[in-house]
């Protein structure tokens, strides 16, 4: 592994040098274990502690198949899907690996008693499998997390519709929270040169998801002037949705849970901000009964901020707790676009407000390769910036996932894999200097 790191850090290394590097038989990786899936039985979601289920193991290097690449991972990031994996909710991810393993001989590699998790990476290609022409050893890359087979016709308009669509490092093995990752070559994209490894690894999953959900025609198709209600506007998804709204000439109405987070939104350029803790919205009277009066109070607050206008697009992901309010505050003909249900997936809303006002609910999930590429291109052009707040070592991944589970973090949380320290991997110093304040906006807060 030392030889690999030396090659990455040497400015003189060529593609041939990387191709000639011997690959290790094993590497360090963040895992959850199949024989521990019941370890949190009986506990509430909140009390399930990722620090107990997340392990750092030495694992064997997987065989490289056609259309695939082995990547030396310099840095990765924590996504909420790794929180779900680590608390075995809503179901154990080993079921996904078993199901994938049954599909063909090569996919059997994924069905193991351990799951190497993680759906982001920035690093360097070490080897490519047969049939890979677009990438070569030595390429500095980031990887998006869409894994598809594309044998069926269904996915050929929009690859997210492939029946064998999976999220890498969640529904497949050999994810990014490791020193080496196995990806399909059509997950690879160029690493933005003005960013360090950990900065480049941070946006991938959430930036691509927010791009499809909010900007793409497959999602809400946001346009200039739209009022966009963004839940968790300084969180993983929300910090990119807020940037897309601002960069696209829309008006973000940012919901956050503290003054500190409100200030982060202001620093991004937003001025319509709702602190849901300070204003104490209680959309549910009890576990089963919502309070439409509270939807109205929330809607009135939005009207105060917009000069009397309602919401064109809701960027939804908290789910059960907020969905009734989200449907209510959307304007006639508006759109609620949802990609998640952090607070519960059995949503309840008053359907009269949906059909009588011709509103639409759009389900959105990750992004196709083109959408992920366009989202990454905006990062590379310095139009959208990473929202990295804190960086942990691979050994500390359990704590990093705990922070995200308990909503103790801001923006994105990074993890160093092979990178020995933060700040390495920057190739375009001039562009970095142009954007340095925006790049550091979330750091250490
Ligand atoms: C990029 C980052 C993303 C995120 O962070 S997202 C957040 C994290 N992700 C999640 O929380 C999602 C986790 N996944 C799940 O909870 C489950 O994954 C799903 C609920 C999405 C799917 O459930 P399942 O049980 O895996 O699959 P089924 O499709 O429900 O299959 C169950 C059986 O139901 C049959 N079935 C499906 N559709 C129909 C139909 N329309 N009519 C009749 N039967 C149907 C199937 O065939 C199958 O059957 P048979 O068990 O016999 O194989
Ligand atoms: N389908 C897909 O492709 C994707 C789905 N996801 C899912 O989206 C969800 C959010 O992910 P991500 O943004 O990375 O997570 P983060 O935890 O980084 O951010 C979510 C933010 O939502 C807000 N929030 C949390 N709970 C509630 C609640 N009950 N009511 C109102 N606001 C709430 C919090 O902000 P605050 O406290 O400031 O209000 C929190 O910071 C997860 O469930 C994740 O699995 C994520 C990426 C892709």
UniProtKB/TrEMBL annotation:
Domain Enoyl reductase (ER): 49-415
Reaction(s) this enzyme catalyzes, per UniProt: butanoyl-CoA + NADP(+) = (2E)-butenoyl-CoA + NADPH + H(+)
Keyword Zinc (UniProt): yes
Entries under Gene3D superfamilies matching the protein: Medium-chain alcohol dehydrogenases, catalytic domain
InterPro entries linked to this entry: ADH-like_C, ADH-like_N, Crot_CoA_red, ER, GroES-like_sf, NAD(P)-bd_dom_sf, Zinc-ADH_QOR/CCCR
EC code: 1.3.1.86
GO molecular function, one term: crotonyl-CoA reductase activity
UniProt keyword annotation of Heme present: no
Entry keywords, A to Z: Metal-binding, NADP, Oxidoreductase, Zinc
Listed CDD domains: crotonyl_coA_red (cd08246)
Description of how the protein assembles with itself and partners: Homodimer.
Family the entry assigns: Belongs to the zinc-containing alcohol dehydrogenase family. Crotonyl-CoA carboxylase/reductase subfamily.
Protein name: Crotonyl-CoA reductase
The organism's taxonomic lineage, starting at the top: Bacteria, Bacillati, Actinomycetota, Actinomycetes, Kitasatosporales
